[in-house]
Amino acid sequence: MHSLVSTDWLARELGAADLRVLDASWYMPREQINARERFEAGHIPGAAFFDIDEIADPESTLPHMVPTQARFEKLVGALGVSNGDRVVFYDQRGIFSAARGWWMMGLFGHDHAAVLDGGLPKWQREGKALNSGVVVPKPGQFRADFRAHRLRGAGDLLDNLKEQRETILDARASDRFHARAPEPRPGMRAGHVPGAISLPFTELLNDDQTLKSPDQLRARFKELHIDQASAVVTMCGSGITAAVLSLALSVAGLPSGALYDGSWTEWGARADTPVQS
Question: What predicted TM-score, i.e. pTM, was given to this entire model?
Fold first, then answer.
């Protein structure tokens, strides 16, 4: 299954017995928008709500960190997903948090997952059908195969500082990367991981919030000296839009690498992590 699917493709496939559609919308706390309420007000027919803050480690002090394998299996199965299913994620912005859902499925061994190009806004612009109301899916049976090599922690990035074996791509806005704008979370230092490269995820999107073409993505990555041989780690503020970079790498036909789950929320708050501006 390709990592990105079109609205027309999804419209044709809706209702297939092996297709599961998940709304993985997420908003920053300061936005004060309830993604689940918006889902219930209008969603793609047959979709269920993938709660990024719930399908996470409840014991971590960091936001929506990767859960245990057992928790992921339980909660994703409760959404109706089984191992033989194709899973399509979308979000209410276009391409923003849906990529996090796609990345998590891959992390837990499920490659038959994709992101809806342009998300709900494109679906609505095209006049495609919406349903409303609370959704209670018929449970599925999902068994995970955790791929630890796709995940990075602060210790991994600290080890990488000297040898620079891996290229760190930061999806945050450039003003945050260069400490020209304050971090949205209180108590965070401003700046970036030394040696990291700034690649705001918005640079990879068209004006209509669809992903740029594979050729355009490859050209942008080539400018950053990223190719088939590159070992890449993506990061952002809290591990959400980092997955947009991972998705773009996949669509470009390049290795999608690993993702630093704690991202700047962890790195910027620790006392033992160096910061460059």
Answer: 0.97
Pairing of strands 232-235, 167-170: parallel
Q: Mark whether 98 is an active-site residue.
A: no
Under CATH, which architecture does the 149-267 domain have? 3-Layer(aba) Sandwich (3.40)
Q: Is the pLDDT of residue 183 over 90?
A: no
- Taking only the tens place, the pLDDT of each residue in 38-70 is 999 999 999 999 999 999 999 999 999 999 999
Annotated catalytic residue, options 236, 243, 249, 258:
236
Give me the pLDDT at residue 186, please.
82
Q: Which CATH architecture has domain 4-146?
A: 3-Layer(aba) Sandwich (3.40)
